[in-house]
Structure formats: structure tokens, C-alpha cells
Amino acid sequence: MPERPLRLSARWALPVDALPIPDAALLIGTDGRIAAVGPQDSVPSPDGAQHLPLGDAVLLPGLVNIHTHLELSGLEAHTPDREFREWILGIRRLKAARTPEEFLAAARGGVRDCWAAGMTTLADTGDSGAVIAALTEMGGSGIVYHEVFGPHPGQCEESFTEFRRRVEELAPLAAGRVRLGVSPHAPYTVSGPLYSRVAEWARTEGLPTAVHIAESPEELEFVVQATGPFAEGWKARGIPALDHPTQQPSGRRATRPASSVAWLDAHGVLGPETLCIHAVQLSDADIALLAARGAAVAHCPGSNAAHRHGAARLRALRAAGLRVGIGTDSVASVGRLDLFAEARAAQSLGGLDDREAVALGTIEGARALGLEAEIGSLSRGKWGDVIAVRSSRRSLIASPAGQVLASAPGEVILTVLGGRIVHRDGPT
Where are the alpha helices (DSSP H) in 258-338? Predict the structure, then answer.
């Protein structure tokens, strides 16, 4: 917690859940929460407070990045240049060569990079355990979904037992504003029985779940037709074909699932605590099913484009009432963690106005993670997660939201997390 109150002032404040405020100020108390926000003359200046006049800048809530892989920090040179399955195998080889110390150093660097780029709450997936260790020791905020892999159904119990042991080992690190979750990776790396086992256990333990689903055409081909590179990879490793829980009575052929989403639902994975990552290859029926289950979606337009997977149906997802936020994915997918660029891409794909696009990276991301009561807007009582973005170059842009959207990570001059300054750049 901060040792003294922090008072920020700037040309604009963009609360997100209220109209922009010109000539604004914001006060964060020693409890790390927002005590007041409004016009300069309406916000108190307590004795002993730290005052930061930020001048020609926009204050807004810290950005919420709902999909990262920070243990892959440092692998920017390995962005996609080959078929998807081969790229995945290449990343796995690089991970296998890293030591625990290297993973932890990568995670710490990734957290610092996110803070410098205005991201204050992170939803990360990985299997090294380094990110939850880094976030907790650095006093960060977010959900860390620990991954499990295991495509052979005959190894389900063995895979699950080791996974549960590891999650229980990491559980003490879930402290402060850091929460632990689980992530059965994807249909091409996790068997149906293991999905069901992990989903059931996660519900019992109250752990949120994240899954990579409906990401690529290759995945859809694998699930629906049992063909393509993922099917060939399984066959080469002697792994039985993907199970289909919609088995017909004895003597009749099994009904193949209509989609990855339908297959996942048949294994009891989808629910309000499920974050569906990417969700590009979706039919109308898939979107209706996700909405009926109350699942959320992590939209990663930059990664989807880099891997040439297509564009997610953002308009349809939002129209169906799904909770949708935006994520950067890893530096190995996109090269740079830039949620402003993701918001601009989402704006174009979804036909959003400036305010809606900024909301995707703040309050809507918070809703997707179930954290909207604590973060995502400059509201009294919420955590004092605030960033300041330079606006002088865009002074002719009327909308503060438009000024924010035109920004780049290097224009974040201040990042405050729970009233604590975690990044500061330029004259403040």
C-alpha cells in the first residue's frame, strides 16, 4: 500500500464509466483505492499527499490484458513464419531449453514491460509457475492460469495427478491481488477425459478456467474431421483419435461434434468461470452456446492476424451479450505487448466507437475476468490502478478516448497500481 495519498492532475480524466472530465484530478488514499475523481477544484488535497501534475495528458484506468504468456518474454524473434503446429512445436523446444531461473527472469521482465505499456491487470497462461511467482513478489494484479497438457486418454489420471500436485504447490503464491486458475491448453493437446477431470476439479475448488479454443482452421479440422496436421501428429505418436462423448447406442456410429466449442461443452468445460481464448472459428450455434453458458472471450486480434487464423466475430459476440475483453497473446506471437494496438484492431473489426474500444481494454476486460467491481474504471472505491498517456501530439483530436486509442506504449508516462507508482517516464 502507498505510504501517503497520491493526487494526480491532468488535462483530461477518462473514467470509462462516466463522461470525460476536463482539467481533472484524482486522489488515491493510503488504502490503495480511489478516494475522489473529478474537476480539479472538487478533489481534495490532503496534507502530506504526493502531488503529480501531469499536464497535457489523459488519466484513465489501468489497462486489462486478458491473455498473455509472460513466461515467453524474450522470444520476440520467434514470431510466426510457418505452419501453426510447427510454430507451436518450435516454441515448446525453446521452452524446454529454459531453466527455472530464466523463466522467472522472463516473467519479471514481462510484468515490467506490461506496466510500462499501461497494463495493470494481467490474465496469463503458462506452465512454468514463474509468472505467479513474479506477479506476487512484485505486488501485481491478475489471474495466472496454470496449464496442463496430456493428449493420451490412457494417461489422464497420471497427467491430472501431477497437474493437481503442481497447482497445490503454487497455491500459496496466490496472495494479495493475484489469483490462481487452471488452463487445460487446447483440444489438440488435451484429451477429452482430462478436460472433464480438470473442469470438474476446478469447479469444486472454485478455480477459474482458461482454454485456447476455436483458434485455427487446423484445430477445427482436427476436431470435426479428424484430419490435418494435428491428427497426423497424434497418429505418429500413437495417440488414439479424439474421443466423442456423443456416442450412439451400441452398433451405431458416433456422431462427430459440429465444432470445437460443442466438443468442449460436451466435456463440461464451459461456464461463467471459463475464459475462451481466441474463439475465431465460431458458428452462430457456437456463439449462442457460449452465451448460454455465460462464458467469456479473450479477443486477440493481433495474434489472430499474425498466425493467419482469420478474424473473430466480434460484433456477433457482443450482440449475443458475451463478456469480451482484449489480450495481446505472447511476444512470440505478436512481437510487442501493445494493448492500444489491439484496441484499434478490435475497433476496426467490431465497428466500435472510440469509447467502446477503450472500454474493451478496461472495464470490459475486467468484466470478462469477473473483476469489474474492483478495477476497470475510475470509480470511487475501486483500486487505484491509473495510467497517464501523453496527449499533446493529438491536441486536435476532440475525444479523449480518441487520443488514448492513437497512443503507443512509449507514450504512457505514468502507471499506478493500487496507489503505488510502478512506472514513470518523462517530465512528471
Answer: 260-266, 284-293, 301-306, 314-319, 331-334
Contact assessment for residue 255 and residue 220, using Cβ atoms and an 8 Å cutoff = no
Q: What is the pLDDT of residues 249-287, one digit of tens each?
A: 444 455 678 899 999 999 999 999 999 999 999 999 999
The phi, psi pair for 311, rounded to 5°, reads -110, 130
296 or 243: which leads in pLDDT:
296
Query: Which residue matches cell numbers 486536435?
Result: 396
Exposure string over 113-138, b if 16+ CB within 10 A, otherwise e? bbbbbbbbbbbbbbbbbbbbbbbbeb
| Whether 296 contacts 324, CB under 8 Å | yes
Residue 414, H or E segment: strand 412-417
3 state SS of 41: helix
Angle at 295 between CA 290 and CA 297, to 5 degrees: 90
In this predicted structure, the answer to whether residue 411 has a pLDDT above a threshold of 90 is yes
Which residues, in sequence order, are bridge partners of residue 180? 144
CA 163/CA 400 separation, integer angstroms: 46
Closest CA to 182 of 136, 134, 148: 148
Mean pLDDT of the chain: 93
Amino acid occupying residue 85:
R
